Structures are given as C-alpha cells and as structure tokens.
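Exercise: predict the fold of this chain.
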Amino acid sequence: MKHYIIIIAALAITATSCKKDFLTKYPEGSINVGNFYKTVNDFQEALTGAYTPLRDAANNAFYIEEMRADNAYYTYNPKDRGSVAAEHIADFLDDVSDGVPGTNWIAGFNGINRCNMILDQLQGATISDSVKKVITGETRALRAHYYFELVRLFGKLPLYLHATKDNSTAFIPRSPVDSIYTQIIADFTDAISNLPLPAFSSNGTQSGHITRGMAATELGLVYLTRQQWDKAAPLLQSVTQMGYTLLPNYADVFTTANENSKEAIFEVQYKAGTDGQSSPFIFRFIPGTPHTLNILGVDFNTSNANYGGWNVPTQNLINDYEPGDKRLDASIAVVKGHLDGNTDFQPDSIASILSPATPGEQSRNFIRKYFHPPYNLQNNTDQDWYWYRYSDVLLMLAESLNEQGQSGAALPYLNQVRQRAGLTPSTETDQAALRKVIYHERRIELAFENHRWFDLIRTGQAVSIMNAYGATQKATYSYLLPSAYTVTNDRLIYAVPFRETQVNPALGQNQGY
C-alpha cells in the first residue's frame, strides 16, 4: 500500500445534510462531501486516509502496550526530566493528566470517524457492487480494529456508527464494554464475508491492504480475549489455509526487504522520505546519546540524547529465553561504550547479546528487530510495524485448542514456532503445563510487538506478574517512588484523557483515576 501517497484532508470533514438538496451549497474550489465520494478513486483515496491513523497509533503504542509490561523499560536520564509522562506509564504512576495514552485515543477515533464517513457515503454511491463490497469490508475491519484497540486500552467508549455532524452526535456518553465488543464482532464478521483472500505475488509479497486473513485473525483474538475458545479456533484454523507461512529465518521477518511477506497478516505501512509517512522507531529504541555514528552509521546534526532510551529490553525478559533460542540474538543487541566527562553515554560498537561483557564497560541493550542501518534522515525510516504475524495465528490457535482440552492437537501449531527458533518441539499434553508453554512462546516470539500487556490482561496474570516485577524494579532502581508499581485491577485500563472529559463531560472517568 506504500504506493498510496495522497492523503485526502476531506476525510475529516463532517457531513451535512438537507432535505432540500438544491439549498445545500459546497465550496467549488476545494474537496468536500459535495464533490467528493463520487468515483471509485475517491473512495480508494478516502480509504487510504482511514488507514493513516494506524501510523499515529503505532508510533505511540510501544509506550502504553509494551513498556507497560515486563518486556521493556526505559533508560533513566537524570539530566532530562522532560519525558516523565512516558516514564509514568512504565512505572504505573500515570493519571488523567498524562497525555501519552491520549495520542492513541485521538488516533483511534480519527480512524473511526473516517471509516464512518466512508460507510455513510458508500450507501448511495453509484459504483459497482463488487468494488463496494471490498471497500465495505476493509472499512468495517478498520473500524473494528480501532475499537478493539481502544476498548482494551480504555474500557467503555462512545460508540459511533456514523460520522459526527454536530454536538448532538459528537458529545455522547460511553457505551458498556459488552456493547463495544458486540459491534466489533459484527464488523469483523461482515468484513470476513466481503473481503478477498490474501493475494501473493510471484516473490511472495502482498499489497498491505486488509484482507480476509486479517479480519479472521483479529476476530479470533477478540474471541480469545472474551475466552470464547470454541469460536476462536475455527477462525484461526481458516487462516492457516490462506497461503500464509513462516519465513525460514526469524531475523529476516523484520527486514525492510521482507515487508508484506507471506508471514504478514496485518502490517502498518511506512515509507521513508519527507511526505510524512516515515517511521521513527529505531531512533527511540537505541540508547540516548549525543553521537550516533557508531550505532546508525551516521552522526546527525542534532543529538539523539533526548530521543533514545525507550522500549529497552529488560533483564527479566532476557532471562526468559531458553538456551539456544535463535530469537534472542535476532531480537536484542548491545551497544558497548563509555561515559564522557558530561556523563553522556558515548557508543563505541554494537555487539551480540550473546557476547561476554567486558569488565568496567558501559553497555545498553536495545531492540535489534528494527535495526537496519545505514540511515539518511533522523527519525525517518522505512520500517513497517507488524500488528499481526502468522506465528501469532499459530500460537493463538494452539491456545484456543488447548483451552478446549485438545492439547495434542495444539502441539503441531506451537511447534512450528519453536522449531523455527531452533528449539526442541514440545511434547507437553497436560493442559495447565502446556498453557504455560504457550504463554512463554507468545512472550518470546512476539517480544516488542506490543502484545505482552494485552496478553497479561486477557490471561489474568497482569496484577500478579506486574506487582512481582515491580518489587524487583524498586529494589533495583532507587529513583522509583514507593507508590510505583501499585498494580490493581483499576490500572488494567488507562484513564480517559483529561482533555476529552473537559470537552465531553458525558464521558465520565474510569474507576481509580
């Protein structure tokens, strides 16, 4: 989908209506609902615009979906206290005023409104039924995706099924979580019936558009989240028949050369350059440093000291890798260096996480998955972001079968993932024991892909695991406040952003904030 460059600003325009159409006037020199949404190309461009907030969400999601858990942390910089809001997320000190989750609230509802605009206008459009069917499928799957992300982050939500037109349609109260899930399931179910199967080119790549595979995968996860294993398994089983496969080498999955491969189920599209479609991930994940030459292959004119040091792999995660697991070296690397006279970290070289430490050296772990130098522009890369991969489908299918007492049937799917990692196939058939094996595999296989926090919540482990992890963190880092890592059920969702409750008091606030 990277060939779609034009993002139509008109997608955010609110629709207006009048019973007497001849009285409705539209500006003739600009794009608006009066002269747009006429042709197939109009709707395709609008659909591209509905995909765009995925980038805004992905750019921020690692703070609230990975660093919130025990996979990743941040490097504390006592000289720079300007980013404490993101630190508060990791330390469970966030409150209604912290704006980091609000970025995803805005991105999600921007996406939902753009989807609703398309669906509203599509009803009376004079385009072929076959094209209308596919656009409907993509749009409803996108809306369901935005709502699924938001409901897991914030709980109850305002449920918009049409584009907002005025205060009465914009400022509505939140609907119960069950109602949100009912709509998510309805949207994904409809999308599955309308969307085509994934189409792979001769070199094994696909377009990046949502297909039936994405809708079935995410609906399968919805059912896992709702603990409806019997409904999840058939959907996930169907995805295994759609032509997806694991790439032979785990490390190759994350190279830009293999974007939109046969392992990609749903991938947020980025394109390096100056048109606003680039990704910044590796600049956030490498250590904060005034000089990046020995990491990125180029020293930029501006320092990366205040950008880096986020989503840092934890020792807790590193300890969870089994001996011989190829994914450790593919996922995590080390920057070796020293502190200068200003106590700034100066990198000297990059080393394998498997290499022995040198006495007295300074070292910083960082995520290798998204590291593909050299780079030409700061905070500007071509790195896509996976939302779902085929290995995720295999592990979800194994989980859904095991939860139904079909442990033997679950093993082949689990072991496809383990064998690629160079590990011995599991022969465990005790349901409780196999459950732990599957949870472990999900943590390792999907590390730094923003699944860990949601997995801990839906499996009922978040409070116990994060409180135990937090106790270790507070014993390790003296700067942490005694109130840090006080993890309760109320903290499994975020506060409704303060600015949103001021604009729309009908939203109310989540318990505990």
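Check your answer against the key: The beta strands are 72-73, 264-268, 312-313, 332-339, 345-352, 362-367, 385-389.
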